[in-house]
């Protein structure tokens, strides 16, 4: 079983739409949770950390459900520039990071 | 800002050659990692190091070795390159302990083995 699982998509949405991604993780002892964004042929970059209480950064909202072991990312008012692959990342208690395979988002005009 | 630098961005090597991929970070991070990324397979951990001269195997260490002689530098070595090692290689670093510490990536090294 994979440590982190995500729907690969692609999610094709029009500009202005709201889109949500989920990911599940298998290790209940996982310590920290993140969403990363990766553009084509570029390195992954931190989008936001995910906290138990949920957190928001502009148009982006992240949620963590420890009981069900899933993480979500909500993007409101999608922009063309949001087109990318979004990686769910989990850090365990031994400082190892596990990555989902990524969810591809295409925002269309 | 954290800077992770991979000096070789694009390499073409012949089968059987020894290949060195170098990575340097400038933020005094204890942990350093080497991943490879392939379409449909996501990021897979090759090796990581949590201190100078310390290393641990990741999920796919076969065919690779690493060296960490200084805290800021982590090298990936392909002893005898093979065509199935054609991939994008990503170096990364992070701080130890304290929850919430994130992982920072270099720009990647694109290796083609012919």
Number of helices of chain B: 0
Structural class of chain A: mainly beta
For the terminal residues of chain A, how far apart are their CA atoms? 38 Å
Question: Tally of extended strands of chain B?
Answer: 12
What is the subunit organization of this protein? heterodimer
Amount of beta strand of chain A: over 45%
Strand pairing plus helix content of chain B: what structural class? mainly beta
Question: Taking all residues together, what is the mean pLDDT of chain B?
Answer: 93
Proportion of residues in helical segments of chain B: under 10%
N-C termini distance of chain B: 37 Å
Radius of gyration of chain B, whole Å: 13 Å
- What string gives the helices and strands of chain B in order? EEEEEEEEEEEE
Shape of chain A: globular
* Number of helical regions of chain A: 0
Give unreliable regions of chain A as ranges.
none
What is the typical, i.e. mean, pLDDT of chain A? 93
Task: Spell out the blueprint of helices and strands.
The complex is a heterodimer of chains A (109) and B (114).
Chain A: E1 4-6, E2 11-14, E3 19-25, E4 32-38, E5 45-50, E6 55-57, E7 60-65, E8 70-75, E9 84-91, E10 97-99, E11 103-108
Parallel strand pairs in A: 2-11
Antiparallel strand pairs in A: 1-3, 3-8, 4-5, 4-9, 6-7, 7-8, 9-10, 9-11
Chain B: E1 4-6, E2 10-13, E3 19-21, E4 23-25, E5 31-38, E6 42-49, E7 56-57, E8 64-70, E9 73-78, E10 87-94, E11 104-105, E12 109-113
Parallel strand pairs in B: 2-12
Antiparallel strand pairs in B: 1-4, 3-9, 5-6, 5-10, 6-7, 8-9, 10-11, 10-12
